[in-house]
Amino acid sequence: MTSLPHLNAAFPRTRLRRNRTDAWTRALVREHTLTTDDLIWPVFVIEGENRREPIASMPGVERRTIDLMVEAAAAARDLGVRWLALFPITPPELKDPQGSFSGDPDNLMCRTIRAIKAQVPDVGLLCDVALDPYTSHGHDGIVKDGRVLNDETVEVLVRQSVVMAEAGCDIIAPSDMMDGRIGAIRDGLDASGHDMVRICSYAAKYASGFYGPFRDAVQTGGLLKGDKKTYQMDPGNAEEALREVALDIQEGADMVMVKPGLPYLDVIRRVKDAFQLPTFAYHVSGEYAMLRAASANGWLDYEKCLLETLLGFKRAGTDAILTYGALDAARLLKQG
Ligand code: PBG
């Protein structure tokens, strides 16, 4: 076997430190970079007007009413962050075991989409599809006799997707992990005249402990009894992630997501190598909270570690990253 020419020269002819001599050389030979085009900013919307609420387990993240969300969307766009992922907080009296309010064209989610699209049309909206914001039990699907029903849930998800597409959403992002939902949603969107609305499948979504702060943020944590292990993936599996992605591509997914991010970088790399389609990562609430908590204690530098984490996603093969630190990262990138 002949070795590659550049591997022939050994020390002292080769000194890898030469390429690290100064900032301009390091920049010249850098293999991966992070830009604001890579960032999607997840945000939480509440009912009301001119109101914002902090989230204790996610310092720096706020719930906002629609009017403030419109302002935030414009501010994000001005920083170069052109995508938002929207999450609604549904008042408890509007929740039921079937998650019926998910299909109401005047629910908080749809009103938020319409408001942002009317006032900040050049911001892309990625909208989560799953029933957990709307169910009284906190599961992502319809529950009967203690089981989360698949096919019955998919029917409700199709309606949820169509009303959000109608409202103006750009990317439908099913996060529920029901089988067969991508194909059903694609058919539903096409049949209702939304054939250009994209689908980003949360294809490899694991049953993770790292979603804890998110469930505080959307106020579903207290409702959920048990766990989501009968639909979200087992953290021990990687081959199965490739099967999930393959099926979703066959069903019409335009992009796929791996979630959480950091503990699953191997999965991101394997998905990217196997399928070469746009592959996103979700740097989830618990991952963000860890960075914030450590930096609040003076143990880590939040800014440095955030950028390093996001660059790590790029190196692993990610095309875009959902991160609560999107605006912080954008500000830091602007400073250079
Ligand atoms: C709900 C959903 C969850 C997240 C995104 N969509 C939570 C869950 O599955 O329980 C988690 C995001 C995060 O932790 O930042 N389907």
Q: Per CATH, what is the topology?
A: TIM Barrel
Structural shape: globular
The amount of beta strand, in percent, is 15-25%
What is the helix content?
25-40%
Order of helices and strands: HEEEHEHEEEHEHEHHEHEHHEH
Q: Mind telling me the CATH superfamily name? A: Aldolase class I
Number of domains: 1
Q: What is the CATH class name?
A: Alpha Beta
Largest sheet: 8 strands, parallel, barrel
As laid out across the biggest beta sheet, the strand order is 1-4-5-8-9-10-11-12
Q: From the helix content, strand content and strand pairing, which structural class follows? A: alpha/beta
* Amino-to-carboxy terminus distance: 44 Å
Ligand inventory reads: ligand PBG
Q: What is the annotated CATH architecture?
A: Alpha-Beta Barrel
Gyration radius, to the nearest Å?
Answer: 21 Å
| Beta strands, count | 12
Plain-language structure description:
38% of the residues lie in helices and 18% in strands. It is an alpha/beta fold and 336 residues long. The protein has an eight-stranded parallel barrel with strand order 1-4-5-8-9-10-11-12, surrounded by nine helices. The N and C termini lie far apart (44 Å). The model has no long low-confidence stretch (mean pLDDT 96). The structure holds ligand PBG. Ligand PBG binds next to helix 6.
